[in-house]
Amino acid sequence: MKQGVRFLVMAVCAAAVTGCVERRYVIYTDPPGAMVLRNGQTLNATPVDDHFVYYGKYKFTIFADGYETLKRSLAARFEHDREAYTQGKTEFVVEVLRRAGHA
Known about the structure:
Layout: H1 2-18, E1 24-27, E2 35-38, E3 41-45, E4 48-51, E5 60-63, H2 67-77, H3 82-88, H4 90-99
Antiparallel strand pairs: 1-4, 2-3, 2-5
Protein backbone atom coordinates (compact mmCIF):
# COMPACT_ATOMS: atom_id res chain seq x y z
CA MET A 1 0.00 0.00 0.00
CA LYS A 2 2.79 2.45 0.89
CA GLN A 3 4.49 1.74 -2.44
CA GLY A 4 1.29 2.53 -4.31
CA VAL A 5 0.91 5.86 -2.47
CA ARG A 6 4.57 6.75 -3.11
CA PHE A 7 4.18 5.95 -6.79
CA LEU A 8 1.03 8.07 -7.00
CA VAL A 9 2.71 11.03 -5.28
CA MET A 10 5.74 10.77 -7.57
CA ALA A 11 3.54 10.56 -10.66
CA VAL A 12 1.54 13.65 -9.62
CA CYS A 13 4.77 15.59 -8.91
CA ALA A 14 6.25 14.59 -12.27
CA ALA A 15 3.09 15.65 -14.10
CA ALA A 16 3.01 18.99 -12.27
CA VAL A 17 6.64 19.77 -13.10
CA THR A 18 6.31 19.03 -16.81
CA GLY A 19 3.33 21.38 -17.09
CA CYS A 20 5.47 24.34 -16.03
CA VAL A 21 7.92 24.16 -18.92
CA GLU A 22 7.75 27.06 -21.35
CA ARG A 23 9.44 26.37 -24.66
CA ARG A 24 10.93 29.48 -26.27
CA TYR A 25 13.38 30.37 -29.00
CA VAL A 26 15.30 33.54 -29.84
CA ILE A 27 16.44 34.63 -33.30
CA TYR A 28 19.37 37.04 -33.66
CA THR A 29 20.74 38.53 -36.87
CA ASP A 30 23.83 40.54 -37.60
CA PRO A 31 23.02 43.36 -38.15
CA PRO A 32 19.89 43.39 -36.00
CA GLY A 33 16.62 44.69 -37.36
CA ALA A 34 15.84 42.07 -40.02
CA MET A 35 12.19 41.04 -40.21
CA VAL A 36 11.28 37.47 -39.27
CA LEU A 37 8.33 35.45 -40.52
CA ARG A 38 7.35 32.09 -39.04
CA ASN A 39 5.20 30.00 -41.36
CA GLY A 40 4.29 33.20 -43.24
CA GLN A 41 3.21 35.14 -40.14
CA THR A 42 5.21 38.25 -39.15
CA LEU A 43 6.88 37.93 -35.76
CA ASN A 44 8.92 41.14 -35.44
CA ALA A 45 12.33 42.62 -36.14
CA THR A 46 15.37 40.86 -34.67
CA PRO A 47 16.27 40.09 -32.04
CA VAL A 48 12.92 38.36 -31.66
CA ASP A 49 11.73 35.63 -29.31
CA ASP A 50 8.56 33.60 -29.18
CA HIS A 51 7.17 30.44 -27.63
CA PHE A 52 6.27 27.22 -29.34
CA VAL A 53 3.79 24.59 -28.28
CA TYR A 54 5.11 21.50 -30.04
CA TYR A 55 8.24 20.25 -31.69
CA GLY A 56 7.87 20.07 -35.43
CA LYS A 57 8.69 21.79 -38.66
CA TYR A 58 8.59 25.56 -38.91
CA LYS A 59 9.52 27.70 -41.89
CA PHE A 60 11.37 30.88 -40.94
CA THR A 61 11.93 33.67 -43.46
CA ILE A 62 14.37 36.43 -42.54
CA PHE A 63 14.87 39.51 -44.71
CA ALA A 64 16.45 42.93 -44.42
CA ASP A 65 14.92 46.20 -45.60
CA GLY A 66 15.23 46.59 -49.33
CA TYR A 67 16.40 43.04 -50.01
CA GLU A 68 13.08 41.68 -51.24
CA THR A 69 12.60 44.64 -53.58
CA LEU A 70 16.13 44.19 -54.90
CA LYS A 71 15.60 40.46 -55.50
CA ARG A 72 12.36 41.02 -57.40
CA SER A 73 13.94 43.73 -59.53
CA LEU A 74 16.97 41.57 -60.35
CA ALA A 75 14.79 38.55 -61.10
CA ALA A 76 12.82 40.59 -63.63
CA ARG A 77 15.96 42.03 -65.26
CA PHE A 78 18.05 38.84 -65.25
CA GLU A 79 15.44 36.12 -65.56
CA HIS A 80 17.75 33.79 -67.50
CA ASP A 81 21.15 35.04 -66.29
CA ARG A 82 21.87 33.55 -62.86
CA GLU A 83 25.37 35.03 -62.66
CA ALA A 84 24.18 38.60 -63.32
CA TYR A 85 21.37 38.11 -60.80
CA THR A 86 23.88 37.04 -58.15
CA GLN A 87 26.31 39.85 -59.01
CA GLY A 88 23.46 42.36 -58.72
CA LYS A 89 23.13 41.57 -55.01
CA THR A 90 26.83 42.17 -54.25
CA GLU A 91 26.56 45.92 -53.54
CA PHE A 92 23.63 45.39 -51.17
CA VAL A 93 25.40 42.60 -49.26
CA VAL A 94 28.63 44.65 -48.97
CA GLU A 95 26.66 47.62 -47.58
CA VAL A 96 24.89 45.45 -44.99
CA LEU A 97 28.22 43.97 -43.91
CA ARG A 98 29.78 47.43 -43.73
CA ARG A 99 26.98 48.70 -41.46
CA ALA A 100 27.44 45.62 -39.28
CA GLY A 101 31.16 46.39 -38.96
CA HIS A 102 32.34 43.33 -40.92
CA ALA A 103 33.70 45.03 -44.03
